[in-house]
Design a protein that fits this description.
111 residues, 2 strands, Rossmann fold, SDR_fam, NAD(P)-bd_dom_sf, 31% helix, mainly alpha
Length: 111
């Protein structure tokens, strides 16, 4: 079985980016269905919490949570589970990836 994938690096966090990504994926593979979605976008803050501003937090939430939700929502109308027919045993998968970022500060210890 051949596995094919398409990688995207959206240039903005606009509401239209997820739809554009889904449409480009469907066109790239000449298909009307999506079987697997890997949400792997993420940003991190590299500073102490006391220095995090509301704008910093909003950016992290925008990309890490809202972006993943919008992309999954854009893909749902095209998943094989919702667009029958599909072969017995086939299902759609979404894989939410996160990155455990860690930065050690002077005097800190690893857990």
């Amino acid at each position: 079985m051949a596995l094919l994938a398409r990688l995207f690096a959206p240039t903005s966090a606009s509401d239209s980016s997820p739809d554009a990504i889904v449409q480009a994926t469907l066109a790239a593979f000449s298909t009307s269905t999506i079987d697997i979605l890997v949400n792997n976008a993420g940003v991190e803050l590299r500073r102490l919490l006391v220095h995090v501003t509301p704008d910093d937090f909003a950016r992290v939430f925008e990309v890490n949570v809202r972006g993943a939700m919008l992309l999954a929502g854009a893909a749902i109308p095209h998943v094989s589970l919702i667009s029958p027919p599909w072969a017995p045993g086939e299902a759609w998968r979404t894989i939410p990836y996160t990155v455990r970022a860690r930065q050690l500060w002077r005097g800190s210890r690893e857990p």
